[in-house]
């Protein structure tokens, strides 16, 4: 894609990150985002198109592994390969950290994210039953399984 740039974000990008997060139903809080930007063991990657922040991914360094904690692309820019490009940058960060694997957890009902991860070479390691609270605040809504996935960076 023309004019796509993926780069590590800094505390200077906090406001842009807060706006980006607000495009989803359960946005990360300003405090969480600021903590990630300030944490030397976290890497917040931003995807910019024509200078506008349209996606981000958060990856955290663990003792042996790296964990993808968030990935998001604004709805208007989806299905253009931006998340795939962010994931490639996440894997590159894992290689720089010499992580043995990159781990992630995803809601069992999040078909688009699961397809994205499989396509990027992640495979399923197991499930945590009923790990996530229901997305909708309804009395009859069920908790959702978490699918655990990983790959070598
Ligand atoms: C999941 C998400 C990050 C994908 O972003 P994206 O930029 O649209 O993804 P890409 O364009 O890079 O897609 C790469 C591949 O993932 C799969 N994919 C992505 N979105 C999909 C969708 N809506 N339906 C089916 N497959 C999808 C496809 O295989 C796609 O390749 P293709 O377009 O060549 O078929 C985006 O939908 C999003 O921000 N969702 C909300 C946040 C979220 O659920 N994050 C994951 C939490 S674990």
TrEMBL record:
Q: Which Pfam families match?
A: Acetyltransf_1
Provide the E.C. number(s) assigned to this enzyme: 2.3.1.-
The question of whether Transferase is a record keyword is answered with yes
**Keywords for the protein's UniProt record, in alphabetical order:** Acyltransferase, Transferase
Q: Which GO terms describe its molecular function?
A: acyltransferase activity
Q: What domain of life does the UniProt record list for this protein's source?
A: Bacteria
Q: Where is the N-acetyltransferase domain?
A: 4-153
Which SUPFAM superfamilies would you find in this protein's record?
Acyl-CoA N-acyltransferases (Nat)
InterPro entries given for it? Acyl_CoA_acyltransferase, GNAT_dom, YpeA/RimI_acetyltransf
Q: What is the protein name for this chain? A: GNAT family N-acetyltransferase
Query: Which organism is the protein's source?
Result: Billgrantia antri
């Amino acid at each position: 894609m023309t004019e796509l740039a993926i780069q590590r974000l800094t505390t200077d990008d906090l406001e842009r990150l807060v706006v980006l997060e607000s495009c989803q139903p359960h946005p990360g809080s300003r405090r969480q985002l600021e903590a990630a930007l300030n944490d030397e063991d976290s890497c917040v990657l931003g995807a910019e198109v024509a200078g506008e922040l349209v996606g981000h991914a958060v990856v955290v360094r663990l003792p042996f592994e790296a964990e993808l904690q968030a990935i998001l692309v604004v709805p208007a820019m989806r299905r253009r390969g931006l998340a795939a490009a962010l994931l490639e940058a996440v894997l590159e960060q894992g290689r720089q950290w010499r992580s043995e694997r990159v781990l992630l957890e995803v809601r069992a009902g999040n078909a688009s994210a699961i397809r994205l991860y499989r396509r990027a070479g992640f495979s399923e390691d197991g499930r945590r039953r009923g790990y996530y609270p229901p997305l909708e605040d309804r009395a009859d809504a069920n908790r959702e399984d978490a699918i655990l996935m990983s790959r070598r960076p």
